[in-house]
């Protein structure tokens, strides 16, 4: 398996991700919504925008001009790159399952909309943030497949901010909206890893 194979896998993964997100945005009526929500703090937007630029450039460079900047590449074992490809497929399946389970409750904003409910089925029966988990695995996988550390560092930095700072704010909105119902759901589920039964 050569570099061309992994580049094709990388492009397929991100093409599937783009198609998946577009499909569910259209299905949920979110296609015309702004990229950033009005309740999103300016700091979050700036961080994602600034870190997102080198990420997009690194992805573009890897897809169309691989090897042009040798300093941005590491040499990883073949087995590690294969594991990255397998993990990327699993992450895409988890993302699709999460989207399908959410249905009309899918939103790109921090706060739930008035007609939203607490979803406790599918992956949400086990963890509260399967989409964040899927994206984290995807970005780690993208690094393993491409061997490009810029993709890895910037991708993980963005999703890391979402999984920590943004998630806390998001859950605060959910508690304000659903009260004890969400608190009870939170007690029964893990954040990103299923909670072990006592």
Query: Would you list the SSEs in sequence order as H and E?
Result: HHHHHH
CATH top level is Mainly Alpha
Main beta-sheet annotation: none
Count of spatially separate domains = 1
For the secondary structure, the number of strands is: 0
Give the amount of beta strand, in percent.
Answer: under 5%
CATH architectural label: Up-down Bundle
Low-confidence stretches: none
The CATH topology is what? Four Helix Bundle (Hemerythrin (Met), subunit A)
Helix content: 55-70%
What Rg is obtained from the alpha carbons, in whole angstroms? 18 Å
What is the arithmetic mean of pLDDT?
90
- Distance between the amino and carboxyl termini: 45 Å
Overall 3D form: globular
Walk me through what this model shows.
The protein is mainly α and 198 residues long. The chain has a single domain, classed as Up-down Bundle (Four Helix Bundle (Hemerythrin (Met), subunit A)), CATH 1.20.120. Helix content is 65%, strand content 0%. The chain contains six helices and no strands. The longest helix has 30 residues. The model has no long low-confidence stretch (mean pLDDT 90).
Which key terms come to mind for this protein?
198 residues, mainly alpha, Four Helix Bundle (Hemerythrin (Met), subunit A), 65% helix, 0% strand
